[in-house]
Write a structure and sequence with these properties.
By secondary structure, the chain is an alpha/beta fold. It is 34% helix and 16% strand. The chain folds into 3 domains: 3-30; 43-147 and 157-168 and 180-459, no CATH class; 507-846, Alpha-Beta Complex (Spore Coat Polysaccharide Biosynthesis Protein SpsA, Chain A). Belongs to the glycosyltransferase 31 family. One of its GO terms (cellular component) is Golgi membrane.
Length: 847
């Protein structure tokens, strides 16, 4: 065999080996990437929260894994931060494990057995115990500036340690604080594990108590609103643990008993010993908002340090390295967006990455347990922390840490024994790494309005609700003209037009003979001012007597981002169809998507479709009381609601998944029931005003038990000039008398005199379907803020249009029960019966 032949054989064998290696690698990738997708989509947490039985099993398995105290090490994953997020996936369950993974030297020392620390600990304990009995002075060898802090519990070269772990170099010392830390739920849109193309300027970590759902919701509708952070990219994450079955408020540390009688315990008791009902709510919250980072640790005050370390590890392991700065805060504080943006823009990216800043308190004294006193949440025994003073630390309510420091802290925390007080523990991290703490005068514990005016960035939420006007996304924005005699919050408290004085004037309700006075079609309650003129006054300022009566928060929980996307303002459509849908009507929405919503049926006509819904109502009832009158409902929506358990958790999960799949739901933060239809209408018009006015001249509103015939709809719209569309208000016009309760009982449309004192309604459109032009929607959405609600949405819209002096155009081709002949004659709204029997939905033609 020639040398050339041998060479060819060697090359061939090499190629075969290479192909085999690549084939094996491809198999590993095929196995691995589906697992990454599973973990990234939070499938484990989703499956665990499907039933109480599964949740209990998941808790038991987590406890079993944690008891092993063994963090699996993959030889291919030997650095921190890991070179790939796949290294964070634990082989024992499909979740990210944020315990550090790094190689240990063969002769690595066990930190708990280090001679230096044990000797030091014995001396300190004995001296400190004796000294505390004598007086409160600090022994010399435990000075507050003593380098002895650095050997708590190890005297390590942290610069070298961090460098070694970052570069995969075997470490000479075993970690003392590196247990399993499973991320049961990650915020999917924030620090995405893969395909993450969005890099925010700032990520805000909100340390939240697991039961504090009300505080989280309040944050979402106040300082977290995106429009308050204009031209600035920011993301928010709530970090929390999990509740435990049969949890107690009694804790024991180093032989001392402590009783937590805090808000956490008050909320815990509301759910009883089993926390399954709460977990269902938490799962829905996590799914709807996608801003929860949930760890596998018990969420209590005494695990705040675990929560801090968990947060640092998540940032270091999963967040994009390009994010320069992180802000940490407690959930009982608010932020001031404009001041944070101003502060941020004063620094270069390099400065931000190496920055830290917060509020340095004057007291660093270590509180010791007092016999027979069990309520000190900060008490630490000498054995737990042997000094009399902590190192300097930032108070935990608000502080900033640059990305470079976060990575170092995430590593160092594995080698520093925990103490329960997270603020002080962070101070120890700073001390050990020889990083100087920087006081920031823009962060304070008791800031007020004057501090905010001079650049302060944080407020206690109880303070902020008195001095801040957060104005929810869909609430009317307005200015107020007032003089120096009144403060803004005083006006809001005292002049909100909450009175109903109109019903106290007999002339408005009865004449001298006691006869009913017909409704004079001029104004509607309350009628203090010229509504049309106020539309122009909103920007320049309203008087104190014109503050809106009906301008409560209207929170959009999910937006149909494909429709009226604010980032695509140049995308115009001919029509936006708003389907007023009941929250449980999943089948009706599915049928609509497969029939008239097929875009191919709308030839040479651009149209978008949106379903507007609220939230399922827990423990829903068929009986309501209005002004002392009993009303019973027998609607289809109520019938459908009985298919779901009383908590309606499963319905909320289905709704959330539907929204993600079709992206055509506008979901409001109100209960979806028949008597909230007016709230749904106001919510929808506000959304259109804020997001859609520039996208379309015309909007069609229909009930979800009707369908559209595309050709007839297009033909009808084209009868109007384009100049007419924006000011159009057209539908089936109706005029009727007010239905009153009888003998303490009322039908669904019965309205008492106290609710509406006139005998007739103004003309209004039947709610099954009507057109409103963009100008009409804009004015109506504002007018509704100044007009007391009436629960019959059709009538309420009629009152609004009357107050705006808008003419109602009657359309003959709207029928409550249309037949085939009406369909052929141009009826554009049809029933499901007609849709199934007389329309070919492939072509859109009438059969």
């Amino acid at each position: 065999m020639s040398q050339i032949q041998r060479g060819l054989i060697i090359i061939t064998i090499g190629c075969v080996i290479y192909l085999i290696i690549m084939w094996i690698s491809s198999i590993n990738l095929l196995i691995y990437y589906p697992q990454l997708d599973t973990v990234s989509e939070n499938n484990y947490f989703s499956n665990c929260t499907k039933s109480k039985h599964l949740w209990i099993r998941c808790l038991e398995y987590l406890n079993h894994i944690s008891a092993q105290k063994i963090v699996p090490i993959d030889s291919n994953c030997n650095t921190w931060p890991p070179f790939s997020v796949e290294c964070l996936i634990d082989k024992r369950l499909p979740a990210f494990n944020l315990a550090l993974k790094f190689p240990l030297a063969l002769n690595a020392l066990d930190s708990t057995d280090e001679v230096t620390y044990n000797k030091f600990g014995d001396v300190i304990y004995a001296n400190c115990k004796k000294q505390e009995i004598l007086d409160d002075e600090e022994p010399e060898e435990m000075g507050s500036n003593s380098t002895d802090y650095s050997i708590y519990p190890q005297n390590l070269n942290f610069s070298k340690l961090i460098y070694d772990i970052q570069h995969g170099i075997p470490v000479q010392t075993k970690p003392i604080n590196n247990p399993d830390m499973f991320a049961l739920q990650i915020p999917k849109g924030i620090c995405k594990p893969h395909n993450n193309n969005f890099i925010p300027s700032l990520i805000i970590i909100i340390k939240s108590g697991v039961y504090n759902s009300e505080k989280r919701n309040r944050a979402r509708r106040t300082f977290m609103q995106k429009h308050l952070w204009s031209n600035f990219s920011v993301q928010f994450v709530f970090v929390l643990g999990i509740p435990m079955e049969n949890e107690s408020n009694i804790f024991t540390f180093d032989g001392n008993t402590y009783v937590l009688d805090t808000n956490w315990w008050s909320l815990s008791k509301q759910y009883g010993s089993s926390k399954w009902q709460f977990m269902k709510q938490l799962a829905v919250e996590a799914d709807l908002y996608e801003d929860l980072l949930i760890g596998s640790f018990h969420d209590t005050y005494y695990n705040l340090t675990k929560k801090l370390i968990f947060s640092l590890r998540w940032i270091s392991g999963l967040c994009p390295k390009q994010v320069p700065l992180y802000l940490f805060m407690d959930d009982d504080y608010d932020l001031i967006p404009r001041n944070i943006i101003k502060f941020y823009n004063n620094y270069s990216e390099d400065n931000l990455r190496n920055m830290s800043g917060g509020f340095l308190g004057s007291s660093r004294t270590v509180f010791r347990p007092i016999p027979d006193e069990t309520d000190s949440v900060w008490a630490m025994t000498v054995k737990e922390f042997p000094w009399l003073f902590y190192p300097q630390y930032y108070h935990g309510f608000t502080y900033m840490i640059g990305a470079n420091l976060v990575h170092r802290f995430a590593i160092a925390s594995a080698f520093i024994k925990e103490i329960r007080i997270d603020d002080a523990y962070l101070g120890i991290l700073f001390y050990k790494l020889n990083i100087t703490l920087v006081p920031l005068n823009i962060i304070g514990d008791t800031f007020h309005k004057k501090n905010i005016m001079t650049g302060g960035i944080n407020l206690r939420y109880k303070t902020s609700q008195n001095i801040m006007n957060w104005t929810s996304d869909l609430r009317i924005h307005y200015n107020i003209q007032y003089d120096n005699y009144y403060d803004r919050h005083h006006l809001n408290d005292d002049y909100l037009m909450r009175n109903e004085s109109y019903i106290q004037h007999p002339v408005l309700t009865r004449n001298a003979k006691g006869e009913s006075v017909a409704y004079i079609l001029k104004e509607h309650c309350p009628n203090y001012f010229n509504l049309t003129a106020s539309l122009q006054a909103i920007l320049s300022g309203l008087s104190i007597y014109e503050i809106p009566i009906n301008n409560d928060a209207l929170i959009a929980m999910r937006l149909p981002s494909d429709t009226c996307n604010p980032c695509s303002r140049n995308k115009k459509v001919d029509l936006v169809v708003i389907v007023k849908s009941c929250v449980y009507c999943f089948e009706q929405r599915a049928y609509a998507r497969t029939t008239y919503m097929n875009k191919d049926l709308w030839k040479n006509f651009s149209v978008h479709f949106v379903f507007t819904v609220g939230l399922p109502t827990p423990n829903e009832t068929s009986t309501y009381y209005f002004d002392g009158v009993k009303t019973s409902l027998t609607t289809n929506s109520l019938y459908l609601s009985t298919k779901y358990e009383s908590s309606k958790w499963s319905a909320a999960k289905i709704l959330s998944n539907e929204s993600k799949v079709y992206n055509d739901l506008l979901i409001g933060a109100f209960y979806d029931n028949y008597f909230n239809l007016t709230t749904k209408m106001i919510f929808t018009l506000r959304w259109i005003t804020n997001f859609c006015i520039s996208h379309s001249p015309l909007f069609l509103f229909i009930d979800d038990d009707y369908l559209l015939h595309p050709n007839n709809t297009i033909n009808l719209i084209r009868k109007f000039n384009k100049s007419q569309l924006k000011s159009l208000a057209a539908g089936s016009v109706y005029f009727g008398k007010v239905d009153r309760p009888n003998n303490g009982y009322g039908a669904r449309w019965a309205i008492s005199y106290n609710e509406y004192p006139w005998d007739y309604y103004p003309r209004y459109f039947l709610g099954i379907g009507y057109f409103l032009g963009s100008d009409v929607v804009h004015d109506a959405s504002i007018a509704m803020a100044f007009t007391k609600q009436l629960r019959i949405d059709d009538v309420y819209l009629g009152i609004i249009l009357k107050r705006l002096n808008i003419t109602l155009t009657h359309l003959d081709n709207i029928h409550i029960h249309p037949g085939k002949e009406q369909l052929k004659s141009g009826a554009f709204m049809i029933t499901k019966y007609l849709a199934e029997n007389y329309v070919n939905w492939t072509t859109g033609l009438i059969k």
